[in-house]
Amino acid sequence: MTDISDYGGGQHTEDVLVVTTNDVPGFRVDRIIGEVFGLTVRSRNIGSQIGAGLKSLAGGELRGLTKTLVASRNQAMDRLVEQARARGANAILMMRFDVSDAAGMGTEVCAYGTAAVISPAS
């Protein structure tokens, strides 16, 4: 049986709400703090690269690389939330991920968004 947490992620904090939308239904934006981001760069493991190369010949999901990307995204997200919290935010609006090659040495994952203070709408 596959553990779903190996292949997925998402918000897991109670004090900072993270959304991909401009606003949060039922809440008003009291203050925009500004851009925040969380970044991680992961080097490529030669063993997993060889395994992925062989697997790509036969087709199918590259599970080892999928797990690594999930871990990278979750770490970037954790750092994003830490930055927002440190700046006094209780929400991150318009959260996005950007993934790119890091000079052929690894993969860069950046989670970014707009830190804000929100409160329930009256």
From TrEMBL:
Specify the domain of life of the species encoding this protein. Answer: Bacteria
Question: Matching SUPFAM superfamilies, A to Z?
Answer: YbjQ-like (SSF117782)
Q: Name one Pfam family in it.
A: YbjQ_1
Family named by the database record:
Belongs to the UPF0145 family.
This chain's protein is named: UPF0145 protein DN069_22385
Tell me which species this is from. Answer: Streptacidiphilus pinicola
